[in-house]
Amino acid sequence: MTDLYIVSGFLGAGKTTLIQTMADHVFQGQKIVVIENDFGEAGIDASFLTSCDITVTSLSAGCICCSIAGDFYKAIGQIVKEYQPDVILVEPSGVGKLSDIIKACLKQKELVEIKRCITVVDSRRFDKYKENYGEFFMDQIRYADLILISHMNGDSGEMKGILGKLRACNQEARLETDFWDTIPAAVFRSGTRVQAVEALREEVIRTPKISHILRGLSSPFRLAREVFASVTLECDATLTTKELKDKLELVIHKADGMILRGKGIVSCKDATVLFHYIPGILKIEPCLAEGNKICFIGTGIKEQQIKSIFEGKL
Question: Rounded to an integer, what distance in angstroms lies between the CA atom of residue 91 and that of residue 300?
Fold first, then answer.
């Protein structure tokens, strides 16, 4: 039986960073497989995680929610058979429903055991995301049995406020505000299962055919596609880091709609860099992975417009 952990969180919350931390501080010496999937087509997080010597299976049919009938359900069995890992870490798309991923994993109960359903919450954007993307955002909180808070500024009043809001949404989950690498490994490895997840387990037991579960998951994915959009671009390797930064800032400020997340790995003339964007923050830093793709995720964004802005045609 392979231990399985689901690391959920809305766009830009810090899921990939948490997986790195868990690999370094929680599962040292163990064989880890990460099932990672972007909402867009770039496979950027997969490239970055691979550079950290973590085995990555990147699914091809969109986010995990829509891949369950094909790639995802089969991938679990294939991974257990071929890699025989000690631990599987599942990183769903930031716009996926945690409850849907839990159901699919429960259907593979003979191969894997869900040990923890972890959700990362960006404290700076809790109110905004709850108001605008409640169905997706709140599902990730409601079904978590361990909630980690990212981007806290240390203010005690802010911390108390966000903890109260999270507790109102989920009264059973363990809440952690410490730096992730200082939290005891035992907290990540196991803990009390919230009743919402137990209810999903009972639902899966009562529905013996996987096809019934899968049909129930197709509708939420269609809803996600109606709300969110992604644009993936290939970058010119002749760009310098500064030229890349200028182009990214141009897209961020000129594109229609709202860009909620940007990420990419680009081999520039002067360095290979990883960039992350969430509203108000653009971060570019050197990295060891190689790539030439960037991805924007948001609402109301237009693919051709973003490509034209990036290429300097608008």
Answer: 25
